[in-house]
Amino acid sequence: MLPISRIVNGNEYQLQPLMDFTVRRLPEYLEEVLIILKEKERDCLTIINKWGCVGSQQSQFKQKLESDIDSDLSIFQRYFVPLQLVSGDKNEKVLWNNPTPFSPRPIRFRFIKETNDVTEEEITHVKSAITTLVPTEVDLGGKKLLSTNLS
Fold it and tell me: Which domain of life is it from (predicted)?
């Protein structure tokens, strides 16, 4: 289970545990492919991901929020999508493509109306989180797999 944090008017998954979870799950699915890779290819594995933000309006559900001026009429989400697992110095060998790249994983949502300021705040927040990411280490048949890439 991934840890979830309560934030003002919403919830958020921390980025590092989500990346770790994703990186550790893919080798379970792709173990046969990864074991036959050459050592040089295995040393250069990268998971390519994307993230984005989207705001929307919905029917008001009268959710009790911390402030009387806030409303659940609008919701703003940040999402994450793993796209590919690649290997090689220039990521030239594609080992896995996400069959559903249009199915984002929400990593943060807030009951707040989308504005330029809110969007800029989210972009700043996720870019800051990306700079603190450390590679995830996975033991694969006695070999270490290090992988993380989010842009």
Answer: Eukaryota
